[in-house]
Amino acid sequence: MHPQAAPCPFKLFMPLKIAIVEDHQRWRASLELLLNECKDLQCIGSYSSGEMAVAKLPRLQPQVVLMDINLPKMSGIECVRQLKLLLPEVQIIMLTVYDDSDRIFQALQMGANGYLLKRASADEILSAISEVQQGGAPMSTYIARKVVQSFRAGNPQSKPENTLTKRESDVLQYITLGYSNKEVAEALGLTPATIRSYLKDIYSKLHVHSRTQAIIKATKNDLGSQ
Fold this sequence. Notes:
By secondary structure, the protein is α/β, with parallel strands linked by helices. It has two domains: 132 residues, Response regulator (Rossmann fold, 3-Layer(aba) Sandwich), CATH 3.40.50; 66 residues, Winged helix-like DNA-binding domain superfamily/Winged helix DNA-binding domain (Arc Repressor Mutant, subunit A, Orthogonal Bundle). The protein has ten helices and five strands.
């Protein structure tokens, strides 16, 4: 239940700003301790409800949020939806006790970037934070399969008005194959910063707020293969 200290895998010029939204006090305190023991991470906020997170986090501008999926009153899923409207670039990792595929999938549709079971070790938690920070999406094979199945079940939609450029299509094609930003950069001979810039433009054109939403929309519309 409570992660133990682990070697910090980050090598950053500035600490990564992390926020926690978790109503279980002991689990929340354990996460705070884990984050604060890593010199390259900074816990800038820790909240027991989605309402508090939505009110406080836009001003604090976290880069990653660890979000309990089962919050009192406002659910973690609804909190994701609201935070993504306020902070489109924030990376959100859902925390769940059970591998509840339907609720996890709903959170991903709302803009979450991945999920972790609460029994995850300290190493797994830090690795997931590192993965989303590099543009990845930590999730199980089973959940990833549900994402793919949703592509096939969706109704055909018209393509976005703003057509992607050839380079944007190339980037989108790689992320639909599961490549991280670093891997896309290596494949295209670009820098990770350039890939992040392309992704920002892609999200804007597709009217989405996360990597998962971009993949879903791209596959439904047969984008990224131009």
